[in-house]
Amino acid sequence: xxxxxxxxxxxxxxxxxxxxxLEKYGIFVxxxxxxxxxxxxxxxxxxxxxxxxxxxxGFYESALVHFADSLFPxxxxxxxxxxxxxxxxxxxxxxxxxxxxxxxxxANFDLLDKSRKKISFISLTAAKLGIGNVTGINENxxxxxxxxxxxxxxxxxxxxxIFGHCRKIINPNGHLVVFYSSQQxxxxxxxxxxxxxxxxxxxxxxxxxxxx
Length: 212
Hints:
single chain, globular, alpha/beta, 7 helices, 7 strands, seven-stranded mixed β-sheet
């Protein structure tokens, strides 16, 4: 069955898809979350026509690949505490930063990418949708000197150099949260606290939680 053609493209359907995928991990999305996430997806599709933000724009695929996958770390509520300062390293089209910012509205998110057009999209869209806890940053990661409680990386390969800079900018007892596929081996480091595996229609996602 072609789910893309058989699902209604709507906020309500997005809410349903996310619920079916995430609730077993204790992640419950609100209707307000679904409304803003749906609005962000609409803007993503519109901007993507001229800005090449992502290869995934279909509604059902986006619900899983962009939103559900981005939200898996939200099962660890203690990591993204109220007032936490979070850096999304290599956010691309805004993932996982935007979904996490919507889910944790009391935390503050800096979304970093080297692409100016992607940061322009994120900044303008966040302002349009009233996502006030998001700031887009168009800088090189190694020029970042601000301190963070959490650094999240979904698309950037973590190596010793990147890990070393994370150590410099993450506050004591802060976390580095790294997304891996089930075929990848997490970066080996003594600060690796634990890994957690999440299953969904696209397969399995392994997320490593490092604590500094």
